[in-house]
Amino acid sequence: MQHLLVFARHPELGRVKTRLAATIGPAAALEVYQELVQHTQQAATGLTGVAKTVWFAEPTSSPAAASAWPDFEQQGQPSGDLGQKMQAAFAAAFHQGATAAVIIGTDCPGLTTAHLAAAFHALAAHDLVLGPAADGGYYLLGMTRLHAELFQNKAWSTADVRAATLADAAHLGLRVVLLPTLRDIDTAEDLAAWRATEQ
Length: 199
Description:
Blueprint: E1 2-8, H1 18-24, H2 26-45, E2 50-56, H3 63-67, E3 73-76, H4 82-95, E4 100-104, H5 113-122, E5 128-132, E6 138-143, H6 161-172, E7 176-178, H7 188-197
Helix pairs in contact: 1-2
Pfam family, one: DUF2064
Organism: Hymenobacter crusticola
InterPro entries: Nucleotide-diphossugar_trans, Trfase_1_rSAM/seldom-assoc
């Protein structure tokens, strides 16, 4: 079974897109985040025959939160840095019998069902698939078994993450496929670039 893992936050004022909120305000940032989540859900919904789990960054008291992801198993992210959280999510998927697992966030409006399908297709003949983000990170990571080294000794949320991950993959001798480069929405500049493409 193939597994899709989504890292998300509950859409609550002041707790999402904080870098963006510093520029456009918390309310506007929340609206952007809700739009991004809806887009991510649409991309994931088009993917069939795949087990889907959403890993939430924090608990919520909102009864509507669970119903917002109706086709997804729901889990809470463990403590630790981003690498430790992602490693735990992959480990859980493989423990459940996944033959391939792909992880995404909710920050990439360019992500489509076709990208997700291409990622799983690539894993039929490769060890690793990575979707490069324009900021030097990645918007998607997939593998056929857990490679813990990919989550260790990384400066998360910096422009060095993708290069460091690919260097680890090369050191491990992994067969890697790169998807098209897309842009995450983290800053007002990112938001403006996205809106410009919608015109």
